[in-house]
Design goal:
Structural class of chain B: mainly alpha
Number of helices of chain B: 5
Shape of chain B: flat
Strand content of chain A: under 5%
Radius of gyration of chain B: 26 Å
Largest interface: A-B, 79 and 84 residues
Order of helices and strands of chain B: HHHHH
Largest sheet of chain B: none
Oligomer: heterodimer
Largest sheet of chain A: 2 strands, parallel
Number of strands of chain A: 2
Helix content of chain B: 55-70%
Helix content of chain A: over 70%
Structural class of chain A: mainly alpha
Chain lengths: ~325, ~150
């Protein structure tokens, strides 16, 4: 009786029920499972982020952000979006606790929209990389680590492929207008193809000259100067971090996007592998969160749903947490 | 005993209603303060990118600063948004071993991966990127002959 009395007293002191009334932990089973899952997620992302840090600092060199078309302001904006969405999840739970279902629904929708905005911005960013030939792997990746003979011959091969493609197109148009020489003369497509062919021929000659110089030069300085010159003409590398105008936008590949010539980005391959792996896994987590939020939209978000909202909220905050580390590591380091 | 029974029922209802945070009413204003702090801290790490940041020539200072800012942001999110501040001691059981496992994993990678460019075959060096100061520039091409061992 004395024990029972003491326990009751204890309850009053802490304002909640003593542990002996609950078998196991003082949290719901759902929340326990979410926390167990999150602790495995901590290890998963710590593995990815840790590997990135170790690879990055063990690398001989690493690309500057604008060389790989990373925009720091866009990254900061996305960080802000995720922070806002974290707040809206908490506010959704608070509204649900007060049984204010319409406010809770509003905050849920806000979170959903913010998550979609994050993904949209991510897609835009991915597209900026893809359109410049920055992929994590072949066959799409056009990144070379160094301007060497291997690179020069890759440029020449690409130009040769372009030329045979353009020749074929030109032949097809000429065949179509075989009985209409006047129409052929006015064909805008053909004029453009001819223009492109002229450029390709000129560049092929340049690339061949560089290859010859590099292969036959007696000293390594002349050889490397020629090769670096070729790489710089295709995509110049900047030297100043924070210089937004960067030279990266004045290369042949930017003036004529159809050329799609191989590019030299020292450290670019490792950068692409780690960037796409880290942001890709993070984006998958965002998508999973959005699917759950979408499933919650038809639900009544009252007091009874609080536990569920808390659980998905924990997951969503974790996704935000990962981005809090990814943003400086990927954009600002 | 009846008193106890009553408490039990009341207790579980209470728990269901406030699933998890055990009756501590975290005010909305607290969330707003945390939100503002997070925005300011994001601005702080973004500041290292701006031209006003005085340590562009010493990147290690910026890295340390940004990691400190990120850890602070992470603590704010964990403590307040994830309510860990108000949880019972089970939180340590789940988070601390996971954090240690992560740290060990990171350290285990250093010898093989982190120091990989200290021992590279000559064949590999032909295609490997070079350190920036030695690399691009036509200024110091003769440094090419040195192995990339930084």
């Amino acid at each position: 009786m004395a024990t029972a009395h003491a326990t009751a007293h204890d309850d009053h002191a802490h304002g909640h029920v003593g542990l002996e009334y609950h078998p196991g932990l003082p949290i719901s089973n759902g929340k326990l499972i979410v926390w167990l899952f999150l602790s495995t997620e901590i290890m998963f992302f710590a593995g990815l982020i840790g590997t990135y840090i170790v690879l990055r600092f063990g690398a001989p060199t690493w690309p500057l952000p604008h060389e790989v078309h990373l925009s720091e302001p866009i990254g900061a904006f996305n960080t802000f979006v995720l922070i806002c969405s974290s707040v809206s999840v908490v506010l959704c739970m608070e509204s649900a606790k007060k049984n204010n279902t319409s406010a809770a629904k509003g905050w849920l929708l806000t979170t959903f929209v913010l998550g979609c905005v994050f993904l949209g911005v991510k897609m835009y960013e991915y597209n900026a990389k893809f359109s410049h030939g920055i992929y994590p792997a072949l066959p799409h990746s056009r990144i070379y680590e160094k301007a060497n003979l291997n690179y020069a011959s890759a440029v020449r091969l690409r130009l040769e492929a372009l030329r045979s493609g353009l020749d074929a197109e030109s032949a097809a148009i000429k065949e179509r207008y075989a009985e209409d020489p006047a129409g052929l003369e006015q064909n805008a497509d053909l004029a453009e193809i001819n223009e492109r062919l002229a450029l390709v021929s000129k560049l092929t000659a340049d690339a061949q000259a560089v290859e010859t110089t590099a292969a036959t030069a007696n000293n390594i300085i002349a050889s490397r100067a020629a090769l670096n010159g070729l790489a710089n003409k295709i995509m110049p590398l900047g030297h100043h971090p924070g210089d937004e105008s960067g030279d990266a936008h004045h290369g042949l590949n930017d003036e004529h996007p159809w050329l799609k010539l191989p590019i030299v980005i020292p450290g670019g391959n490792m950068w692409a592998s780690t960037y796409f792996l880290l942001t890709g896994f993070h984006a998958i987590h965002v998508i999973v969160g959005l699917i759950v939020f979408a499933m919650m939209i038809p639900m009544t978000l009252g007091v009874m749903a609080t536990g569920f909202i808390e659980n998905i909220g924990l997951y969503w905050h974790f996704v935000d947490l990962v981005w809090i580390f990814l943003f400086p590591l990927l954009y600002l380091f | 005993m009846t008193h106890h029974g009553h408490q039990h029922v009341h207790g579980s209802m209470h728990d269901d209603a406030h699933a998890g945070d055990h009756g501590h009413d975290v005010g909305i204003s607290k969330y707003i303060y945390v939100f503002l702090a997070l925005c300011v801290l994001t601005g702080a790490s973004f500041f290292t990118y701006s031209s006003l940041w005085p340590f562009h020539s010493q990147p290690a200072i910026g890295w340390t600063f940004m990691m400190a800012v990120s850890c602070t942001k992470a603590m704010l999110v964990i403590l307040f948004f994830m309510h860990v501040k108000y949880e019972a001691n089970w939180k340590y059981v789940l988070t601390i071993p996971a954090a240690f496992m992560s740290l060990f994993l990171l350290l285990a990678l250093v010898p093989d991966i982190g120091m990989r460019s200290r021992w590279t075959a000559e064949e590999r060096q032909q295609f490997m990127a070079e350190p920036r100061d030695a690399g691009h520039g036509e200024e110091h091409p003769e440094e090419h002959a040195e192995p990339a061992a930084h």
